[in-house]
């Protein structure tokens, strides 16, 4: 799959759920490329902003969309990577604050 097809497929599924791609298309496409690279490398689309272990079960919390996306977008208007955002975030109606890492530290040591 190429990055444009991934963009269109995810957009179609995620927008009805209230998750939108960052309007910075360059950033969005870089992140989607990272997802495709991780799929090729590990066999699953691990978050490109986090270090995956290569163990699907261990990394299931960071397979995009990660389990942290919903609380991140609810609290900050953006997920950790800034891939998925709210309309308010895209329209700059809310501050673009740093989204802290929610993944437990023990999950980052493998």
Description:
This protein is mostly helical. 38% of the residues lie in helices and 4% in strands. The protein has four helices and two strands, in the order H-E-H-H-E-H. Strands 1-2 form a two-stranded antiparallel sheet. Helix 1 crosses helix 2. The chain is globular and about 40 Å long. The model has no long low-confidence stretch (mean pLDDT 96).
Which features would summarize this protein structure in a list?
two-stranded antiparallel sheet, single chain, mainly alpha, 4 helices, globular, 110 residues
Amino-to-carboxy terminus distance: 29 Å
Overall number of strands: 2
Strand order of the largest sheet: 1-2
Helix/strand structural class? mainly alpha
Short characterization:
With 110 residues, the protein is mainly alpha-helical. The protein has four helices and two strands. The radius of gyration is 14 Å and the shape is globular.
SSE map:
Layout: H1 3-14, E1 20-21, H2 25-42, H3 69-76, E2 84-85, H4 87-90
Antiparallel strand pairs: 1-2
Helix pairs in contact: 1-2
């Amino acid at each position: 799959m190429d990055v444009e097809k991934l963009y269109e497929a995810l957009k179609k599924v995620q927008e009805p759920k209230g998750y939108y791609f960052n309007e910075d298309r360059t950033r969005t496409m870089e992140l989607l490329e990272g997802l495709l690279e991780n799929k090729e490398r590990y066999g699953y689309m691990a978050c490109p902003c986090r270090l995956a272990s290569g163990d699907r079960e261990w990394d299931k919390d960071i397979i995009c969309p990660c389990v942290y996306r919903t609380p991140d977008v609810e609290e900050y208007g953006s997920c950790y990577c800034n891939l998925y955002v709210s309309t308010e975030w895209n329209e700059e109606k809310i501050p673009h604050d740093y989204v802290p890492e929610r993944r437990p530290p023990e999950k980052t040591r493998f």
